[in-house]
Specification:
By secondary structure, this protein is of the alpha/beta class. It has three domains: 112 residues, Beta-Lactamase, CATH 3.30.450; 164 residues, Histidine kinase-like ATPase, C-terminal domain (Heat Shock Protein 90); 129 residues, Rossmann fold (3-Layer(aba) Sandwich). The chain is built from 13 helices and 17 strands. It has a five-stranded antiparallel sheet with strand order 2-1-5-4-3. A five-stranded mixed sheet has the order 7-9-10-12-11. Strands 14-13-15-16-17 form a five-stranded parallel sheet, with helices on both faces. β1 and β2 form a beta hairpin. α7 packs antiparallel against α9 and α11 packs parallel to α12. The longest helix has 46 residues. It starts with 8 loop residues before the first helix and ends in a 6-residue tail after the last helix.
Length: 513
Amino acid sequence: MPTHPPIDHDDLARIAFDLSPSGMLAVDGQGLIVTANREAERLFGWPREELRGRSVETLVPARFHGVHPGHRDGFLRDPRRRPMGVGRELFALRRDGSEFPVEIGLNPVETPRGLFVLVSIVDITARRKADEIERRSQRLETLGVLAGGIAHDFNNILLGIVGHTELVLREAGSSAQTREDLQRVLTAADRGRQLVQRILTFTRSAQTVRLPLRLERTVNEVVELLRASLPTTIEIRAEVDPDTPPVLADETQFHQVMMNLATNSAHAMPSGGALGIRLTPHAVHEGDSSARPATKPGSYARLTVSDTGTGMTADMLEHALEPFYTTKPLGQGTGLGLSVVHGIVSSHGGAMEIRSAAGRGTTVVIDLPVAGAAGPAGPSPSDAATARQVRILFVEDEEMLATMQRRQLEHLGFHVTAHTSSLEALEDFRSRPDAFELVITDDTMPRMTGSKLVEEIMRIRPALPVLMVSGGDRSDPSRTRPEGVRKVLRKPHTADELERAIHEVLASDPGRA
């Protein structure tokens, strides 16, 4: 049977100390470093030979952890009273003067030569960043829930303003000045509607859905939001070509792309500067030497975001797209902005290029492939769908809105039975299921939601066309529609938008062909 030489436990301890994945220091009772391991050398940038005999405060200065400068041993005070291995989060200092967060564990060891403290040090920069990202995500999720609730109530208020204003405009005898004033009310209400939608766009976390999107409108909306949120020292220069073709994209993600790029540019101009946003058509031809490798021949919508900020060095530019890479101080950036933008652009089949130099600003160029030819236009209010009165079951729990929208629909030539209770509407429908050709229902209602009402109606007449009207986030097209709903119309809407939606739903009914 083979025999092994006796184990030298001191050698094993030295090997374990040196190869530990944590930075390790041995510190004597005077707070002087006796030795350090390889990881400590890497963390702090000091050769271990140069660390021996130095105060441990060379690496963890007292000023970083609330101890008065010159206080003996700083964080090493009373190590015997600390539970073995329990970590404490502090800040440490590299040889080059840079600071970084660490978790430090203290293990006192009594030896014949006196008390020594084994100090384990772990760089927790990545953990701090991950925690901050998680906190931001939770705050954003909470904000999204709050925004969705506020949006529902506010959209109902706006719908009442829009609807009643349109009813007054339809009345004969109004003076030209009165009609002009009412039109201004509608314009202001529409701005309120756009504002609510922007809030929902930036706070919702929904699965992506790609639809033909005209970037012109989206870019203009983001520019307006930036003008209101960025410091006045930053001049925004926007150039949008209205002939830019639509792309197949998720609007929420495109908002995210623009906001990330604009935020990065703003951070690069702390003393002010110019932010340029340009949207133009772009064509790539076969053999085009100026095209980026990822760009195939074809037509593109080109978004260019530029700034006159600090720019990036060659090394920074090399790492710019790496997740969590950031040059900002801890807590002022996650390092995810450009990597997220690159991921979104790539997932849309586009290409992205960053041009930058230290002190000369940064330009990001994004090419997104255009969508196919636009499909046929939806039915117009002049279609034959209203050649005869369509019988509508209309459900809206707010009495003011129910009365107003019933009047709107009757002005449009429809025959309307309105209910402010979804339970009463269901009872009415069960008593005469063949009396209606269309159901229009709100989604958020007490006792029985619009989705549940539709579910019950579908049990009786599975093919009956249903138009759902929603003031909350249900109007986001990326959310799943309840079974049987042909279209979701967002509140607040105009009478024309309601009429077009009705025609679209009725046109999709094969029984009316």
